[in-house]
Design a protein that fits this description.
With 696 residues, this protein is an alpha+beta fold. It folds into four domains: 2-108, no CATH class; 112-179, Alpha-Beta Plaits (2-Layer Sandwich), CATH 3.30.70; 184-537, Rossmann fold (3-Layer(aba) Sandwich), CATH 3.40.50.200; 579-695, Jelly Rolls (Sandwich). The strands form nine sheets. It has a seven-stranded parallel beta sheet, with helices on both faces. It has a four-stranded antiparallel beta sheet with strand order 4-5-3-6. Strands 8-9-7-10 form a four-stranded antiparallel beta sheet. The longest helix has 23 residues, at 499-521. The protein is globular.
């Protein structure tokens, strides 16, 4: 009860104070630094060898160097204007730039869900994930848990009782403890949907089977861009037989390497059919269908990372650095992940930090994650509720993919949403109730998880078709197409659905985008930020969605960006047909207070400017995620300033920003990118990518 009492007292200190005198922590909410400092110093359990050092103003590289010179280890940025540090802080308060030094005690290290009576609802033990400080005694900490698994970079999962949780939080090498949420594939089986044997194949072929037609992939294929030279990694349940000599025809010659990642796994074969299906959506060559059903990047190569564990009977808790390292070593620069942790509800957790940390260190690597399938209208207002995106899709630097509708009027699942399992509760109010899964390509899949994240960031970034998608059928002896799919198309293909299916469709498209950028920019070192900015800049706004504007709201509540479609549905024709676009990849970037101004001669019509950057990792204990804040604005010839993401002022929440001016008059525009606050840049600066385009 001690930990709960401490947090109850801390909550009384919460305040709406302005930046500069505030710390924003999950355990307390926004709290006056001076109040928290006094409380922590007075607390018998405050000292854990970790401290938060807050600046009086914006953080500079020189001032950070002064802390390091005193032997302090700067671990992570903490909003506002602070760093979590480890070491002797006895003389830090005397430094002229330091506002406060606050002990980072046990009460600040535990997710509120675990402390506010939550752990007592889990029985004798809680399954937790624990982030350790650099140099921590990994073996000793793991020995304090009833069972444990190291997911890389000091992130541990395991079981702990109440007393053990408190002892762990008091350690100087423990940074954050949160409830562990199991990971699963982001697809929906026939059983999930409450359907079975009445599923059948198509009466006629339409060209929409794979979902790629809606993305207008032919606009690139006709120009010789089919993924050639690109390597895409897929981390999933495996691929077909797990033997290159016996793979089904659609993957013959496509696999660069297969890697067994799962616990106890000796094969990268696929007993669940999921990994085979998603891989076909990325780059299946379509040989079994005379080229009709193939992935967008059918000229690319695949690195398959089989995550299935027969021991766990599930995919592994993801050792993200291991997954990404292995793919990167094989030359993959795009990584597709159709899995996540249901119930994350938009939280920026240890897994999101792990992903952001690795991606910040490898800015030329784009990881895509499924948004999740938690979309539901539990509020009964005919609009899908928000705030359900699954981790690691909540991380800043990944490209999170939601599911729009494919266009399939036959085959697969053709029931109304209210007729599906749990449909009356989740989707029982019109107009959702009578809609189907793939009857209108302007629509969103009702099950697709929506943003925002818990700290208010826009998610997902893009959407792609994820309903009644036809792709490769698994031949593994343990695979059961009838129960694992949405229906059998023929001997070589099956229907499936979920954001699991939308993600690889998008990943194949991203391989085409990367090939285009390599050709256009003349360099192999294309940044993930430039890929994200490009696909989002040219995405198609689905507003208002298939239901149109209604008095009670609509499927897309606003023009893009929003937390349903993000910046829109992938549209490769828009990219290929743009009459004038400008691509900028600034690998040096901007420091605090620096500004880059570009002049752009707009010919008239729609003007669109998109900024993206790979941000430094946040800390899971903080309430706000953004670390480095770059600000985009656009000024027209008359002097009018446009701000991004539909705002009336700068955006200090997202690391992707877009100004979208419909019907802009011809003239010279000034595009400005400013380093608003860059406390944790690379050599003091934040690299970025910028895309400017015009359309009639």
């Amino acid at each position: 009860m001690k930990l709960i009492s401490l947090l109850a007292l801390l909550s009384l200190l919460a305040t709406n104070a302005q930046a500069g005198d505030t710390l924003r922590l999950k355990a307390t909410g926004p709290v006056k630094t001076e109040s928290l400092q006094a409380f922590q110093l007075a607390s018998a359990n405050a000292g854990s060898g970790l401290f938060v050092v807050q600046w009086k103003s914006a953080i500079s590289e020189n001032e950070k160097a002064q802390l390091r010179a005193q032997g302090l280890k700067l671990i992570a940025y903490v909003p506002d204007d602070a760093f979590l540090v480890r070491g002797d802080v006895s003389s830090v308060s005397s430094l002229s730039f330091v506002n406060a030094v606050v002990p980072f005690g046990a009460a600040l290290k535990v997710e509120p869900e675990l402390t506010q009576a939550g752990i007592f609802g889990f029985g004798n033990q809680a399954e937790v994930s624990i982030q350790l400080a650099p140099g921590a005694n990994l073996k000793e900490v793991m020995g304090l848990l009833s069972h444990s698994f190291h997911a890389g970079n000091g992130l541990i999962t395991g079981g702990s009782d109440v007393g053990g949780l408190w002892k762990l939080a008091e350690r100087s090498d423990v940074l954050w403890i949160e409830r562990y949420l199991p990971f699963r594939s982001s697809s929906l089986s026939a059983n999930d949907m409450g359907v079975s044997a009445d599923l059948g194949g198509l009466a006629a072929q339409t060209g929409y089977e794979s979902g790629t037609k809606i993305l207008n992939v032919d606009a690139m294929h006709s120009q010789g861009i089919n993924g050639q030279g690109q390597i895409v990694a897929v981390a999933d349940t495996g691929l077909d037989s797990g033997n290159t000599a016996t793979l089904i025809a659609d993957f013959q010659g496509q696999v660069k390497k297969g890697i067994a990642i799962g616990l106890g796994g000796k094969s990268w074969g696929d007993p669940m059919m999921h990994g085979t299906h998603v891989s076909g959506s990325v780059l299946g060559n379509g040989r079994s269908s005379n080229g009709l059903i193939r992935g967008a990047a059918f000229g690319a190569q695949l690195v398959m990372e089989g995550m299935w564990s027969d021991i766990m009977n599930n995919i592994m808790p993801p050792a993200i650095p291991k997954l990404f390292d292995a793919a990167y070593a094989e030359g993959a620069r795009i990584h597709s992940n159709s899995w996540g942790a249901p119930g994350s509800n938009g939280r920026y957790d240890n897994w999101a930090v792990l992903a952001d940390t690795w991606l910040f260190d490898h800015p030329d690597f784009l990881a895509l994650f499924a948004a999740g399938n938690e979309g539901a209208d539990l509020s009964k207002d005919g609009v899908i509720d928000q705030g359900t995106v699954s981790s690691p899709g909540t991380s800043k630097n990944v490209l999170t993919v939601g599911a729009s509708k494919n266009y399939q009027l036959e085959g697969g699942i053709q029931r109304t949403m209210k007729e599906l399992r749990g449909g009356a509760d989740k989707w029982g109010v019109e107009p959702i109730a009578s809609s189907k899964l793939s009857e209108d390509q302007r629509g969103m899949a009702a099950f697709s998880s929506r943003g925002p994240t818990a700290d208010g960031r826009l998610k997902p970034e893009i959407v792609a078709p994820g309903t009644n998608i036809v792709s490769a059928r698994d031949r593994h002896p343990k695979a059961d197409p009838a129960s694992m799919s949405w229906g059998i198309y023929d001997d070589n293909y099956v229907f499936m659905g979920g954001t699991s299916m939308a993600t690889p469709v998008a990943a194949g498209a991203m391989a085409l985008v990367r090939q285009y950028l390599v050709k256009r920019a003349g360099t192999e070192n294309v940044s993930a930020a430039l890929m994200k900015a490009t696909v989002s800049n040219f995405a198609e706004d689905l507003f208002p969605g298939q239901f149109g504007e209604r008095a009670a709201g609509q499927e897309q509540p606003t023009r893009r960006p929003n937390n349903h479609e993000g910046w829109g549905r992938v549209n490769l024709a828009s990219l290929m047909n743009s009459p004038k676009n400008q691509l900028v990849q600034d690998n040096t970037g901007l420091a605090t207070g620096q500004e880059k101004v570009l002049s752009y001669a707009h010919p008239g019509g729609a003007l669109r400017v998109t900024l993206a950057y790979t941000d430094a990792p946040g800390t899971a204990s903080a309430q706000k995620t953004l670390v480095n804040d770059l600000d985009l604005s656009v000024v027209d010839a008359s002097g009018r300033t446009y701000f991004p993401n539909g705002r009336a002022d700068k955006d200090s929440t997202n690391n992707m920003e877009q100004v979208d001016v419909l019907g802009a008059a011809a003239g010279n525009f000034q595009v400005k990118v400013r380093g608003g606050h860059v406390p944790q840049g690379k050599n003091g600066a934040q690299p970025y990518a910028l895309v400017i385009s015009s359309a009639p």
